[in-house]
């Protein structure tokens, strides 16, 4: 698996003309990596992920997965959004099976995969529950299982824990890190939460304020086995200060005018 964006630009037509949102984004994600993109609000993070997902098209530039140009959504890329996107009238198991049905997988294989991925996210006992019977964190675990069940080459996550309370968020971060280690899934995640990015990833792309461009690539040299206590370590704090300073510096220089 090799994902790459090459000289990626995106602008939107607005009343006043063209709004440039992303400028010359060059990034890559390799098999098994956990990479985060952080940036201030409005720096174009969601736009970037939507382009990679194929939900929108770049103004110019190129996105490739294993050398093939992205021209739309595909099973090679799974997406997890901030808001719960489960179908409320379907059980947990039916939600996880949804994409597999679309792929026309035989029933026996569907059942096997649903059972396996519910186990992976620790929700086997909730297979028959409806989404409204689950907490926010559990619903996000179902959404993750639903994406993983399609066995994408890469999981794209758009602020997946942004709507959760602080405690649930911490639990989910530990859960996701553990899942990543156990399954070897490749993950590209966007977040505005700098600590979350450092805690989870191996590499971070820091965007400038709008129009977003890559300001710096930060390699996170923390042990792969991380628990929450790592946040108290000096190295963690150094990364946090470095990235926070970058974000502050740029937003002071380039105020976002709406
Ligand atoms: N379809 C669209 N038409 C016009 N402008 C858009 C469109 N989509 C996004 N934008 C603008 O692009 C800019 C970047 O939006 P985007 O949602 O990608 O930022 P973000 O970094 O994800 O922000 P946040 O962290 O607040 O979610 C914003 O100014 C937004 O108003």
Automatic annotation (TrEMBL):
Its EC number is 7.6.2.9. Pfam families: ABC_tran (PF00005). GO terms for molecular function: ABC-type quaternary ammonium compound transporting activity; ATP binding; ATP hydrolysis activity. InterPro entries: AAA+_ATPase, ABC_transporter-like_ATP-bd, ABC_transporter-like_CS, ABC_transporter_ATP-bind, P-loop_NTPase. Keywords: ATP-binding, Nucleotide-binding, Transport. One of its GO terms (cellular component) is plasma membrane. Residues 3-236 form the ABC transporter domain. SMART domains: AAA. It is found in: Cell inner membrane. It is a peripheral membrane protein. Belongs to the ABC transporter superfamily. Nitrate/nitrite/cyanate uptake transporter (NitT) (TC 3.A.1.16) family. This is ABC-type quaternary amine transporter.
């Amino acid at each position: 698996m090799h994902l790459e964006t090459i000289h990626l630009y995106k602008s939107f037509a607005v009343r006043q003309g063209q709004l440039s949102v992303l400028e010359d984004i060059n990034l890559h994600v390799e098999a098994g990596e956990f990479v985060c993109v952080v940036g201030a609000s409005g720096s174009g993070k969601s736009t970037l992920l939507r382009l990679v997902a194929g939900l929108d098209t770049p103004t110019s530039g190129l996105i490739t997965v294993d050398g093939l140009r992205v021209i739309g959504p595909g099973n090679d890329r799974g997406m997890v959004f901030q808001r719960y996107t489960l179908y409320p009238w379907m059980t947990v198991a039916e939600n996880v099976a949804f994409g597999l049905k679309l792929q026309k997988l035989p029933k026996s294989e569907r059942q096997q995969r649903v059972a396996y991925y519910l186990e992976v996210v620790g929700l086997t006992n909730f297979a028959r529950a409806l989404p409204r019977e689950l907490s926010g964190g559990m619903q996000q675990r179902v959404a993750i299982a639903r994406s993983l069940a399609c066995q994408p080459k890469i999981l794209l996550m758009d602020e997946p824990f942004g709507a959760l309370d602080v405690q649930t968020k911490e639990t989910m971060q530990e859960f996701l890190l553990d899942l990543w280690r156990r399954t070897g899934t490749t993950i590209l995640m966007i977040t505005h939460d700098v600590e979350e990015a450092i805690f989870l990833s191996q590499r971070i792309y820091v965007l400038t304020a709008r129009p977003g461009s890559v300001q710096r690539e930060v390699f996170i040299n923390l042990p792969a086995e991380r628990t929450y206590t790592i946040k108290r370590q000096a190295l963690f704090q150094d990364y946090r200060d470095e990235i926070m300073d970058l974000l502050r510096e740029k937003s002071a220089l380039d105020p976002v005018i709406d």
